[in-house]
Amino acid sequence: MDTTGTIFMPPESSTIAGEVDAAFYFIYWASIVLFAIVVGFAALFVLKYRRKKRELTSGVAHNTKLEVAWTLIPTILIVIVFVMGFKGFIKMNVIPKDALEIKVTGQKWFWTFDYPEGVNTVNELVVPVDKAVALTMSSQDVIHSFFVPNFRIKMDVLPNRYSMTWFEATRPGVYDLFCTEFCGKGHSEMIGKVRVVNDREYEEWLEEAAFGGEGMSLEDYGAKLYVSKACVTCHSIDGRIGTGPTFAKVYGHSVRLADGREVMADENYIRKSILEPASEVVAGFQSVMPTYQGILKDREIDALVAFIKSLKDKEGP
Amino acid sequence: MSSHAEHPKFLEHHFVEPEQQAASAKLGMWVFLLTEILLFGGLFVVYAVYRAWNPDIFHNAHVHLDVMLGAINTVVLITSSLTMALAIRSMQLGRQSETITNLVITLLLAGTFLVIKYFEYSHKIHLGQLPGKFYTFEGIEGTNPHIFFGVYFMMTGLHGIHVLAGMATIIWVLRRTIRGDFSAAYYTPIEMTGLYWHLVDLIWIFLFPLFYLVG
Amino acid sequence: MSDSPAVHYLNEQKGWKSWLLTLDHKRIGILYLYSIMAAFLLGGVFAVLIRLELLHPGQQYMEADTYNQFFTLHGAIMIFLFIIPSIPAALGNFVLPLMIGAKDVAFPRLNLLSWYIYIVGALVALYSIFAGAVDTGWTFYTPYSTESATTVVPMTLAVFILGFSSIFTGVNFIATIHKLRTPGMTWFKMPLFVWGLYATAIIQVLATPVIGITTLLLILERTMLIGIFDPAMGGDPVLFQHFFWFYSHPAVYIMILPGMGIISELISTFSHKKIFGYKAIAYSSLGIAFVSFLVWGHHMFVAGQSELAAVIFSFLTFFVGIPSGIKVFNWVATMYKGSITLQTPMWYALSFLFLFTIGGLTGIFLGTLSVDVHLHDTYFVVAHFHYVMMGGTVMAFLGGLHYWWPKMWGRMYNEKWAKISVALIFIGFNITFFSQFIMGSQGMPRRYYNYLDQYQPLHAFSTYGSWILGLGFIVMAVYLIHSLFKGKQAPKNPWESLTMEWVTNSPPIHHNFEETPKLTHEPYDYDKVLAEKN
After folding, report:
1. Residue of A nearest to C361 (CA)
2. pLDDT digits (tens, 9 = 90+) for B91-140
3. Within chain C, what is the greatest distance between any pair of CA atoms?
4. Among C83, C188, C359, C391, which has the minimal tally of Cβ within 10 Å of its Cβ?
5. Is C378 helix (H, G, I), strand (E, B) or coil?
6. Is the overall model pTM greater than 0.90, yes or no?
């Protein structure tokens, strides 16, 4: 298993990566040879048969042996390549029975992961090493695509349908997760991380993730959720305008809405903005925020409200 | 190369002889008809896919189509194809007024087809049996009954547009016939119009059973 | 008559009406040439701006929404307004009747109409750009395209209209090739460019109606809310992809087949050598046209179609590569024991061999199921299609343009500057796009406005390449325009080629030939003709 990566491929970090790379490099070397033959002979002929040196040309327009060879050999090569691709593809699509099942939800523009134990995370998929993980995926809006280059897996994520893929990570580490089906303004921000840890660390993480911020002030818990639930993707805390309004100096101030109304940003306003974002869109912004109904528990909403409240006097950059 | 004296008025300068010109026109028109078959073919695929996924709706909805009107329209179009063919025959024999009569009858029959379709469409609009979000009819069992009407209006609508285009072409050819452009030696435009018209008829002959008689 | 007659098709009638109402295939070809070159310029400007934004991660000059519109417009303009009409409508219209000894195409009025339809389609597309611009990608995938607040309907309407232009060109060429060949020119005595145009016309005629119906369905979906692609209404968004690719895959062969036809002409002429394997090349054109209709699902291996469908599409995809490979080998074999000159059109042909081979071979990576899962929707795909479309079709188009330039205008261009331009384009192209193969297999997704830092060096490299590429085209525009005013007078047959268009004057008279031309030799009989001369 090539764990360092090559000029073309990132380090192999799943059980299927080796097979995919083997097919890739078989095609690569066969292509180099074919390319060298074509370009090499063309160059040779250009040099050898310049018009300055010869006026008359040969009438040879056939060579059965050559023509059969250059039809047959490529045909054999592609049959080999097809079989390699076919075998790998079947493995990628047959999900092992005892896999750890995680539900993946794609929406504009973040990923949510739901674990069987009731834990859910945003944009971070934590999995144990050396264990098959089966992903059942669906989209809340348009077509997205789930792509982890290090694992060599990819599958489109569709609305109103489940698509499935699986992987078994072979090395602990943090790997990029990209959305790779164009989905609008935030397509290139829809980046997550797959964190592969050993069994013990995985159990510890599950426990901690399920625990809900006990022992922490609501404000601190809210600060943590601001990042882990991906609010940071669209909302700044220092006055900068993003896809959504900044959280700095919001609580306690009046807000002008897109429909012309002026409202006071109190606890209820913040809670409504999280659960029914389309109902009170701030003037100057588009109504693109998805609802977090079902994604955030009540306590998490309380923590976020506390956090945003704490920013009410924050000065900008 | 023929001298100018033998050069018929209808022979275009890049053709060597009338047979070449007529053969080219025929080939061109057949190829164009092939493109029309592929255009409608796409919609037939849509029909096939959605019928396979929703057999119940297709059955339950189709009873709301008037089979009698559909059958009359089928007879109307087939007859118009006959009169169109007779128009070509008339000009082959050099009979200008007969050609005009046949073309006019073809036009009237085409118009009849569209009138009947107008009544069918109005009725559906009145009842709310419309595609997609405009569907308001209650009385067809199954989920998403609008699917049947979406496919129905798309296919008969596109067909109707082709009937209109065919009528426009027949009017053009009728004008030229009245003007005396054609003779037994040259009637290619009438023939090409005929080919187009037969395709329009043929497409309806598939649409009728698929929508009115299915199930 | 001298090589360059006093009265020819360009000056026989003057004034804008004589051009806008012309029925002369040569003038219509020139009208198309101006149009597609304008489209290429516009599409190219978008490309340079895209690469400029991607020089560094994060926002440089534009917001994400604008960037998304720019890559959509770059794709839509280049595909529908430039590359699909380019060789058939601009070069084919001009050369085809000359090559087969005819005075015009079968339906000159239909020819003019197809240009007008192109212009209307182009204007509707331009309107859509100024009225809000599309941001869906040129592929218009649903449900994003049914929801997007941008001008999807005008742009797809433009595509629908442009489709008719393509269909009518196809109908015209099929009738022309079947019925207007000069006496004695049987099917296997036609030049291979004609075979290329013929196979292309077949695809144009059979495939384009399907994009017509697809765009119509998308327009109805957006305007009448029919629900055909909306899962909440019982529709299926993946059905859109099947419809879209059923046309768009054969469309790429509409792009390459005429280019391959040109390469056969260039290699044979500039090697003064009989083409190797004439029948194999002719049959492979038809073979590619046929198989091209059976492989559309290879764009959808991870889109949600069944695994069985994916396996079948992969298997068939490889078989479309074999005829293309055979052509490349035949072209190289043609050069064997030839008599080769390295004038500009030959440099384009050689560039084609180099670049199209890379483009074609990288297609094999993408047809291989397990490898495609990794490479799909990454920059690897972007690099692949630029190598075949630009390194292939555009190189062939430019080679043909430089080859037939003397015939079209009666003028020669400056050979030195032309060679400098080819070099800049070749080098600039490789720098721009080879780096994208590496980026792609390293995981860089396509259509990304922003990207992770690790991809920055390759992105920067690619952007620098685009500047060299752009410079090559600027140089080309200058010397070509200059040649129209100050170029040397062109002889009838500057390249000593044996195909029939070179028998006419440069530029040809309005009717092409004074008398119906006789076929005195087969198109590539260099061995016989040169031997007789000496």
Report:
1. A31
2. 999 999 999 999 999 999 999 999 999 999 999 999 999 998 899 998 88
3. 77
4. C188
5. strand
6. yes
C104 touches B at CB < 8 Å: yes
Of C359, C427, C429, C426, the C-alpha closest to C392 is C359
* CB proximity C149 to B under 8 Å: no
By C-alpha distance, the chain A residue nearest C57 is A188
Subunits close to A (at least 3 CB pairs below 8 A): C
* Chain B residues with CB-CB distance to C210 below 8 A: 38-39, 41-42
Subunit contact C171:B31, Cβ cutoff 8 A: yes
Class of domain C16-533: mainly alpha
Query: Chain B within 8 Å of C108 (Cβ-Cβ)?
Result: yes
Joined tokens for residue C175:
């009738």
Comparing CB atoms, the residue among C224, C234, C239 nearest residue B54 is C234
Going from N- to C-terminal start, the domains of chain C cover 16-533
**CB-based contact, C205 to chain B, within 8 Å:** yes
Contacts of A83 in chain C (CB under 8 A): none
Give CA separation, A17 vs A124, C33, C302, C370, in Å. Answer: 21, 48, 17, 10
Q: Tell me, letter by letter, the H, E, C secondary structure of C136-203.
A: CCCCCCCCHHHHCCCCHHHHHHHHHHHHHHHHHHHHHHHHHHHHCCCCCCCHHHCCHHHHHHHHHHHH
- C223 contacts chain B (CB < 8 A): no
Burial of A47 (0-12, 13-18, 19+ CB in 10 A): exposed
pLDDT of residue C1: 44
Picking from C103, C105, C114, C179 by the largest number of B CB atoms within 10 A of its own CB, the best residue to mutate is C179
Identify which of C328, C208, C217 has the alpha carbon closest to the alpha carbon of residue C264. C328
Average pLDDT, chain C: 95
CB contact under 8 A, B39 and C180: no
Nearest residue of C to residue A162, measured between CA atoms: C304
C364:A78 CB<8 A:
yes
Domain boundaries, chain B: 21-212
Distances C102 to C81, C189, C321 between C-alpha atoms, Å: 28, 15, 34
Q: Would the CB atoms of C374 and A87 count as touching at under 8 Å?
A: no
Strand A132-139 versus strand A100-107 pairing type? parallel
Complete domains list, chain A, with CATH: 17-53+60-93 (1.10.287.90), 100-210 (2.60.40.420), 218-309 (1.10.760.10)
Backbone φ and ψ for A139, nearest 5 degrees, come out as -110, 150
Predicted confidence at residue B1, as pLDDT, reads: 45
Q: Which residue of C has its CA nearest to A186?
A: C64
Q: Cα C487 vs. chain centroid, distance in angstroms?
A: 27
**Residue partners of B147: CB distance under 8 A and separation at least 6:** B50, B54, B57, C227, C233, C234, C235
What does the pLDDT look like over A121-145, one tens digit per residue? 899 999 999 999 999 999 999 999 9
Q: What is the pLDDT of residues C17-71, one digit of tens each?
A: 999 999 999 999 999 999 999 999 999 999 999 999 999 998 899 999 999 999 9
List, for residues C33-42, the tens digit of each pLDDT value. 999 999 999 9
| Interval B163-172 mean pLDDT | 97
Whole-number pLDDT of residue C234? 87
Could you give phi then psi for residue A283, rounded to 5 degrees?
A: -60, 135
Q: Chain B: residue nearest C97 by CA?
A: B14
pLDDT tens digit string along C148-168? Answer: 888 999 999 999 999 999 999
Distance from CA of A271 to the nearest CA of C (A): 27
**For A2-6, B12-16, C370-374, C411-415, which range has the lowest pLDDT when averaged over its residues?**
A2-6
pLDDT for position B139: 85
